[in-house]
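Practice problem: predict the structure.
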Amino acid sequence: MADRPPEFPLRSFLGMEIERGEGTGSVSVVVGPAHVNPNGVVHGAVTFAMMDTAMGAAVSSLLADGQQCATVEIQTRYHRPVLSGTIRATAEVVTAGRRLMHVEARTVDDDDRLVASSTSTYTVFEPR
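Answer:
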């Protein structure tokens, strides 16, 4: 895969900046009006999407040519609200098998306080 993760509409809509390394991924978002819920805090779907994307980037960095990945399951925990600033999700592949990879992610705020965390399983496949 190319060093730069591909563009996709949700990435553009949320303003996600994505990076990936060998078995790692990160996503950052500058919080704006489109990210908050009616209570004025960042919507949980934003941090969920960030962690899922960071974990997907981490997994995709380990794929062979022609392979793809998809989320099988994901568990997310929310630890504190965010009202403004930049939030950053980082992910790391914990175990990588031939068909399944287990990944962990954490999202922090500007003060490096834990905002949300997640664990996930991804499947690896070759499209037909």
